[in-house]
Structure formats: structure tokens, C-alpha cells
Automatic annotation (TrEMBL):
The gene is prtI. Residues 7-60 form the PhyR sigma2 domain. The lineage of its organism: Bacteria, Pseudomonadati, Pseudomonadota, Alphaproteobacteria, Rhodobacterales. InterPro entries: PhyR_sigma2, RNA_pol_sigma-70-like, RNA_pol_sigma-70_dom, RNA_pol_sigma70_r4_t2, RNA_pol_sigma_r2, RNA_pol_sigma_r3/r4-like, WH-like_DNA-bd_sf. This is RNA polymerase sigma factor. Belongs to the sigma-70 factor family. ECF subfamily.
């Protein structure tokens, strides 16, 4: 499989991750497009260390950070309806409420925690691949995941909160 084949195979995962990061379908598509353009143009720079998918997530995340620094939008909230495909059969009401509650709690997590949790939980990346994509040590990733999970439990009432969210 060539690097271009691996890049093409990663497009659905990149779209999911970008959609979860920016919470706007058009902005997510633009972000993925930027990521793909950079990856294809710089495919000779890929050193062959680790999976191509982790390299692509790193490019996407770095581009996302660049765009946020260039045009910050404090307090800009976008509804998450439509980002996640709905199941073919409607879930029981309790299940639907739980999903909505977790989505709302995910929105309130600090960006670093949400990014780490999405890579591991949504995209299924290994700890090593997720740490490489975020360009952080594995221990830092593990710490962010632990804080994200604890914050989600507190925000959804599964565990008592102690002085608000931990960073």
C-alpha cells in the first residue's frame, strides 16, 4: 500500500475527528482539505516512523491550532446535532438522553482533554499513536485522558465533583 493509498484510507477518520474538533461540517471539511493538501505536498517528509494515520492527525491538529490562533472566536458555541450519525433505529429515551448528556459534557471539556479523548475513544488510536498525533509524551496523554474521563464523570453526575473541572 502506497502512502497515497494510506492517506486516502484515512479520510473518513480525519473527517470525524475534524468534525468533533470544530463542530461545524463546512469548517471540518475545510480543515481536512488543508490537512490533505499539506500531507500530499509533503509526503516525502514522512519518515516512515509509526502509522501514516497518526502523522495525518498531527497535521490536522496543528492546522486546527494555527487557525484558532489566527482567528480566535471566544464564546462561539455551535450545536453538535448532526455531527454524529444517528442509529438506524431510534434508541430508548434514556439512552438518547445519556448520549445528549455526554455530548454536552464533551463540549465543556478543555480542548487538550477533548482532543486526547477523541483520538483514543472515537478514532481508536493506540496511546502511542495518539501521543504522536498530539506531539506529547505518552505519560502526558495518559494524564489528559484520566482527567478527561474524571471530568466527564463529574459533568454527567456519575461521580461527585470536587471544586469543578480538573485541568
Amino acid at each position: 500500500m502506497t502512502i497515497l493509498d494510506e492517506i486516502e484510507a484515512a479520510i473518513p477518520a480525519l473527517r470525524r475527528y475534524a468534525g468533533a474538533l470544530v463542530r461545524d461540517r463546512d469548517a471540518a471539511d475545510d480543515l481536512v482539505q488543508d490537512c490533505l493538501e499539506r500531507a500530499v505536498a509533503r509526503r516525502d517528509a514522512w519518515r516512515g516512523q509509526g502509522p501514516v494515520r497518526a502523522w495525518l492527525f498531527r497535521i490536522l491538529l496543528n492546522r486546527h491550532r494555527d487557525l484558532r490562533r489566527a482567528a480566535p472566536r471566544p464564546g462561539h458555541l455551535v450545536p453538535v446535532e448532526g455531527l454524529f450519525p444517528e442509529p438506524s433505529a431510534p434508541p430508548p429515551q434514556d439512552g438518547h438522553l445519556a448520549v445528549a448528556e455526554v455530548r454536552a459534557a464533551m463540549e465543556r471539556l478543555p480542548d487538550e482533554q477533548r482532543q486526547a479523548l477523541l483520538l483514543v475513544a472515537l478514532e481508536g488510536l493506540s496511546f502511542e499513536a495518539a501521543a504522536a498525533a498530539l506531539d506529547i509524551p505518552r505519560g502526558t496523554l495518559m494524564s489528559r485522558l484520566a482527567r478527561a474521563r474524571a471530568n466527564l464523570r463529574a459533568l454527567t453526575g456519575r461521580e461527585p465533583s470536587s471544586k469543578g473541572m480538573s485541568r
